[in-house]
Amino acid sequence: MKRENKAYSYKEQIIELELQAELNKKKGIKEELQLSSKQKEMIQAQQDREASIRKRLQLLDSDLQSAVGLLEAALIEKPSEITMELPAVLQVLLPLLPSPLAAPRLLRPECDLDPAWEQEDLETAANRTILLLHHHTVPQRDNKTAVVAPLSAPAFSVCFPLLNAVVKKSSGSSEDEESQLIRALQVISEHCQLRSAADSDDMTIDENGPELLPRTSMLMLLIRVISTATPRLQDGCTVAEQQEIDVLLEGLLSPCFSVRDAALRGLCEMEFALPTESSEESGLSLLRRLWVTRFDVEEECRALLWESLGLELVPDLCSLLIVDVTHHEEAVRSAAAEALSSAVSTYRDQAPAVLGLLTQLYHEKLYRPPPVLDALGRVISEAPPDQWEARGGIALALNKLSQFLEEAQVTPLFLFFVPDALNDRHPEVRRCMLDAALSALNTHGKDNVSCLLPVFEEFLKNAPQDASYDSVRQSVVILMGSLAKHLDKNDPKVQESVAGCLPPLVPAIREDAAGIVRNLLQLLLESDKYAERKGAAYGLAGLVKGLGILALKQQDIMSTLTDGIQDKKNFRRREGM
User: Fold this and answer.
1) Per-residue pLDDT averaged across 545-568, rounded?
2) Strands, E, within 364-513: which ranges?
3) Distance between CA atoms of 439 and 85, rounded to whole angstroms?
4) How far apart are CA 472 and CA 479, in angstroms?
5) Mind listing the pLDDT tens digit for each residue in 273-293?
6) How far is it, in rounded angstroms, from Cα 425 to Cα 366?
7) Within the chain, what is the greatest distance between any pair of CA atoms?
8) Nearest-angstrom CA–CA distance, 340 and 365
């Protein structure tokens, strides 16, 4: 629009623009908006975002169709097998229902429904369904002629999400809501009593078996009802007592992740009833269990309750965690080792006591009573099983604790490793103990060379030449090799130590001995560097000691050395001799 003047008034210009727009509309001409470069950039960026979203949704839809296709194929070919996994399948499918991409039907649909689904009010339909379930599955005192029977476990698994939603949604504040909740809970209670037939075998699937029920979800729902419902609805329920809490705390020690997860969520639901005072035995027990859970091997279990309760670590917990380190379940041992390490990192003054308790407990778990015999030497009762898992847990804890040890504790720890712990009768424990020793050596070796080297040398010098000590010798050789990197390279003690390590290793490398001897002789006679020639001499001596005196002749060592010492032209060869 032009600036107003005597020739063009605003009113005339507006009329002209309106007239032109009307003529363009009649002719079908669309007026293009003139955009600035910044506006064009914004439009392009928005189009790129929309294209990216469409592409991601297409990929999700493709994955969804593939998964649904596999599930449909399994249902067609092996419908009976799906019953075994129905609770797990539903647990995956139900969270997808709120998605417009995945949900064909839902309590609160995110997609278009067939009009027939909307002929009845949602709340009325839910009430009617619960009433029908109750009528056909829960025996009634006043109706003894009706045929009433519980659903099969798979059928109940399909119905349970509706019961779960109704119970969670309703507060039970009105009489109608309370009646509906009671009916829903009675349906659940009736199906909790499903049992397999006594004559069922392992080859057939008994659809009344409780293993087919969604037990975890049922337990979580019932705990929620106990914790949140009105006293009248709970029908005699009360605040959870210590015995009930202990049952769930014991569930945190299960090897099964789903059980640990359900137990932890159950504790969350009764949060107000938990004893959190660490000065009491029950509070300290809760503190210990939840602290270990913070380091669970499954991240989903971690820190779910510790923060919400506002719990704090206490020094007394360090010694209590040692019991969990020796637990028979691997998941508990692993979490307890991490938990103990973290606790000691906070309370460093507890490290000496914890180390002493761990080494003492190792010797207790190492002892295995002999079988009980009668007067004639016959076995009355066998020896108890070896507690190697507990000793493996101690090794894992020592591995984690090594970084928090004080200098005064390093030598006693290695006197424990050599020869006892590294010679454990179980190979897995030996491996874990070697890992723990290497971890301690890498952390403290540089500052404790003068203390640790005599420990290793004394063992190699005085240990019996017996096959039962071979595993310790091999471990000590590895430890000495790791310790050698902290020694001064110009110190003769380094080469002497390495040479002393070689004889125990020779049996394992006997087939390659000839090649190693040739390489060492070449270095000894030809190298330009004095340090290399000296190192080759130490290495050759250690190798010959391990191979035996006959190796001097078998490997042509003496003849080669004789030729070298007679070489008048090359002083290096004579010096090498």
Assistant:
1) 76
2) 372-373, 379-381
3) 44
4) 10
5) 788 787 788 888 889 999 998
6) 9
7) 136
8) 19
